[in-house]
């Protein structure tokens, strides 16, 4: 059971990186320092004072920057690969308790599972933010950013306290993000079809 909880904890914190890259690292650092999460061996640096300060400053900068419309879209370009790296790192820190033999195998699984979880959530947030921009011209983006930051905090805390219930919540969030992306893509496809039809009608009239 401890192995299952370690995996769920690692993947839960990794998924939270899809909302905000540094907030889950900050919460992991605080939890490690408080003894709520085990960070032993080569991972003890995550609970050091230096890591706590660095993650705290990075989290503050990231949260504030995402409140600025259009800057948030630019940050997504950087945040997506960074979230994968952070998710892989967090997953690897917990996979050490699973008993996986070999560093290569452990990191491969961490990148696939942890990085994949972070990338999946990040893709959902990007889709929702793009939908907000197209509908409100970016005016509602700060609200979306606040929700994302809250999601990073809630998911990170749940990953530590109730990791099983967390994954139920994550499945719901992923479904919402997927529907938002599908609707946006359908709208773009419909608009493109109308544009093609509209462009073809004058030509047809001129031919007659």
Main attributes of the structure:
208 residues, mainly alpha, 82% helix, 0% strand, elongated
What does this structure look like?
- By secondary structure, the chain is an all-alpha fold.
- The protein has helices spanning 2-16, 22-34, 49-65, 71-95, 103-136, 141-161, 163-207.
- The protein has one domain (2-207).
- The longest helix has 45 residues, at 163-207.
- The chain starts with a helix and ends with a helix.
- 36% of the residues are buried.
- Helix 1 (2-16) runs antiparallel to helix 4, helix 4 packs antiparallel against helix 5 (103-136) and helix 5 crosses helix 7 (163-207).
- The chain is elongated, with a radius of gyration of 20 Å.
- The model has no long low-confidence stretch (mean pLDDT 84).
- Helix content is 82%, strand content 0%.
Amino-to-carboxy terminus distance: 76 Å
Q: Give the helix tally.
A: 7
**How many individual domains?**
1
Q: Hey, roughly how much beta strand do the residues contain?
A: under 5%
Mean pLDDT reading = 84
* Uncertain segments: none
Number of β-strand runs:
0
Describe the sheet with the most strands: none
Radius of gyration: 20 Å
Shape assignment: elongated
Q: Roughly how much helix do the residues carry, as a percent range?
A: over 70%
Coarse structural class? mainly alpha
Order of helices and strands: HHHHHHH
């Amino acid at each position: 059971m401890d192995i299952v909880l370690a995996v769920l904890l690692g993947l839960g914190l990794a998924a939270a990186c899809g909302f905000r890259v540094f907030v889950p690292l900050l919460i992991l650092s605080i939890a490690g320092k408080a003894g709520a999460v085990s960070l032993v061996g080569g991972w003890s640096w995550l609970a050091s004072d230096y890591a706590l300060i660095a993650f705290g400053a990075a989290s503050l900068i990231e949260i504030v920057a995402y409140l600025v419309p259009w800057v948030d879209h630019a940050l997504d370009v950087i945040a997506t690969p960074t979230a994968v790296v952070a998710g892989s790192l967090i997953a690897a820190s917990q996979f050490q308790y699973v008993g996986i033999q070999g560093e290569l195998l452990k990191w491969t699984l961490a990148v696939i599972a942890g990085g994949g979880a972070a990338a999946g959530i990040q893709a959902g947030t990007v889709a929702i933010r793009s939908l907000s921009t197209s509908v409100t011209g970016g005016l509602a983006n700060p609200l979306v950013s606040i929700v994302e930051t809250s999601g990073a905090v809630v998911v990170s805390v749940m990953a530590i306290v109730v990791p099983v219930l967390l994954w139920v919540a994550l499945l719901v969030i992923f479904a919402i993000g997927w529907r938002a992306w599908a609707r946006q893509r359908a709208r773009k496809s419909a608009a493109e079809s109308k544009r093609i039809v509209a462009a073809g009608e004058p030509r047809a009239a001129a031919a007659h």
